[in-house]
Amino acid sequence: MDCCWKEGRCSCRADRAGRPRMVLGGLMVVLGGMAAPVAARADDMAEIRAIHAEMQRLEAKVQQLEARHGMTEGGSHVLAGRTLRSGSRTSASSTSVTNPSGQITAMPDLSRLTIGGPTLSDDAQAAAAAENTMTESIVPTQPKLDLDSSSPLAITQTGVDSLPPIFRIGGVSVRLGGFIDFSNIYRSKNLTSGPATSWGSFPYANSPNAHTGEYRPSAQLTRLSVLLQGSPTKDETLSGYIETDFGGAAGTANSYQTNSYTPRIRQAYMTYSNTKWGFHVLAGQAWSLTTGYTQGLLSRHEQLPPVVDNNQIPGIVFTRVPQIRFIKDFGRKWWLGLSLEAPQVAYAASGSAGDHPMMTGTDDDTLASSGTTLLYNNAGSGMLNPNAKYSMDVAPDIVLKGALDTKPAHYEVYGLARWFKAMGQAPGGPIREHVSFAGGVGGDVTVHVIPRYLQFTGNVLAGEGIGRYGPAMLPDATFKANGSPAPIPEIIGSMGLIGHPTSNLLVYLYGGVESAGRRTYTGSDGFEYGYGVNDLALSSCNVELITGGSCDAQTHTIADLTVGGWWHVLQGGYGAVMTGVQYTYLRKFAYKGGDGASPTTGGNTIYVTFRYLPFQ
Fold it and tell me: Annotated region Disordered: where (predicted)?
């Protein structure tokens, strides 16, 4: 049907296929997103609003162009041979050309035409489908950068869910998200670390790096994402999400001349959601189910702190790994999730016991107390990194989580199960496989203390063999005398306040801690072995040497205090600009040695960041 505006209304004439069409300067544009009224889709109203907004913008453009070429006739506008009264709306951006008869007409500029309308995140689509309606609260007429959340998507991820599609491929919408990031990093001690701080690596006084700081500007946090979505039925949604940054460091990467750091996968997963059944599946690389969530348990709703550092801050629980996840919601209030996630184990092994090393060698290590030879990891091959070590894994890490959404708060509780494996051989004996069980329990909470102005968040995970789930990367396990893995007890936790004094300002305050317990045994020589031993000579940790001295201290606790904020500087048709400042104070405490020494260290980290969000 041909569409024209008359007295503020649009009348149309259908084409042969029954699809509405708009005649713009002799060119017919078929609006594939506005199907004949067979079965109403959840995003129909969103598309209508998007088209109306585009028509209003283009009408202003038409008036500007016609005024420039003297085409206004008594308060009316000439468009492809039609006369439109002032205040009417056109349906495509125009540029002036001369037709064969010599008359100047307006032709559509298809590069400015938005195909389709705003599509929705899984949650918004589900809510809209359930009510078979659409409101401005679900899909705003124009996307606006929102800082009211305790974990704003524009800061913590890429904000792609709030954006309209750039184009459609058949029935699949394609949306782009991300930002250009430039961060200035100042550390009071030299870690030689990029924009992901190695929190467990703050040096003791014996290292010359403990007596000098570092400044490291970086654009590696620049992030891009693509979200693909299609709906086979009004109750089903298929999605594909890819997110990347430049945090990779290939063998040729350096900072001398070209800063040739490489793109890497942050997230890459597919999802299936059925809102009628309340059933959701995720497969691919994503944030672990142990990560807290702002609501529900669906992807891109993670409760991530709005910090700049790519390694978060000590006390936050997370990994970002390949997994397959199954979620069931009950009225979108109660949630139950099961996730099978890629495992890896960080062992406290070679050289961890100082003057009387528990092990010698690198790959095939020998227990000094019993002479048992161990194999517990291997160098990568194939498409794995040959310069990294990979543990010998038995089964995926398993996470079972329940969640509850209420108006004032979101609550979660979960259990984590893990398995560790090592190969051992006593002198003259056979090779034996040793498998140990590990895991823990945890919980998360987000409370809207003052809705839209102040939120409180907290998380905790306690158990054995859970070190990899904390940013400080304390070890998961050590070994027993017979060579079997010995999971190390640990607790990880944090609390935070996120405030929104104004609509364009966000401030935050976090405190976190990661603490490892003892897992030791006494060898036949009378010395302690394992992790958390108390008979090491550690006085050398405080001896300052320019060449670096020996320090075999084992970390007991890492604690931090972080304060920061983001200022939303600009936003418009050109995108959005934000700037942020963050300060972190960190303390690291080691286990006390046999000589009475208790090494401690700490440091300060400051970030000054600028971001341009072109899609917001």
Answer: 71-105
Question: How far, CA to CA in Å, does 367 sit from each of 242, 315, 374, 436?
Answer: 44, 32, 8, 18
What DSSP state is assigned to residue 155? H
Q: How confident is the model at residue 45, as a pLDDT? A: 63
Q: Is residue 579 within 8 Å of residue 610, measured between CB atoms?
A: yes
Phi-psi region of 554 (alpha: psi -120 to 50; beta: other; left: phi over 0): beta
Q: Angle 382-384-385 (CA atoms, 0-180°, nearest 5)?
A: 120
Please provide residue 68's backbone torsions phi and psi, each rounded to the nearest 5 degrees.
Answer: -65, -35
**Backbone phi and psi for residue 440, each to the nearest 5 degrees, phi listed first:** -170, 180
- pLDDT band for 145, please (50, 70, 90 cuts): confident
Residue 553 has pLDDT above 80, yes or no: yes
Looking at beta carbons, which pairs linking 27-36 to residues 24 or more positions away fall under 8 Å?
A: 27/107, 27/108, 29/91, 29/92, 29/108, 29/113, 32/115, 32/116, 32/168, 33/115, 33/116, 33/117, 33/168
pLDDT tens column, 313-347:
999 999 999 999 999 999 999 999 999 999 999 99
Whether residue 470 contacts residue 316, with contact meaning beta carbons closer than 8 Å, is answered with: yes
**Could you tell me how far CA 608 lies from the centroid of its own chain?**
20
Q: Is the pLDDT of residue 526 over 90?
A: no
Asked whether the beta carbons of 43 and 134 are under 8 A apart, the reply is yes
**What's residue 19's pLDDT?**
43
Task: Write the CB contacts of 479 (distance below 8 Å, at least 6 apart in sequence).
Answer: 347, 349, 358, 359, 367, 374, 376, 422, 485, 486, 530
Length of the chain: 616
State the residue for tokens 């095939």. 364
State how far Cα 119 lies from the chain centre.
21
Position 373 confidence tier, pLDDT thresholds 50, 70, 90:
confident
Amino acid at 439: G
**CA-to-CA distance for 123 and 129, rounded, in angstroms?**
10
- Topology at the third CATH level for domain 158-250+261-613: Porin (2.40.160)
Task: Report the pLDDT averaged over residues 581-603.
Answer: 94
Report the percentage of the chain scoring pLDDT > 90: 59
Coil, helix or strand at residue 328: strand
The three-point CA angle 300-301-304 to 5° equals: 95
Whether the model clears a pTM of 0.90, i.e. scores above it, the answer is no
pLDDT above 80 for 309: yes
Structure tokens given for 286: 């994503």
Pairwise CA distance, residues 235 & 240, whole Å:
17
- Rounded Cα distance, 421 and 531, in Å: 18
Measure CA of the first residue to CA of the last residue in the chain; give whole Å.
34
**Which residues, at least 6 apart from 271, have a Cβ–Cβ distance to it below 8 Å?**
122, 237, 238, 239, 240, 241, 280, 281, 282, 283, 298, 299
Domain boundaries, the chain: 158-250+261-613
d(CA 288, CA 300): 11
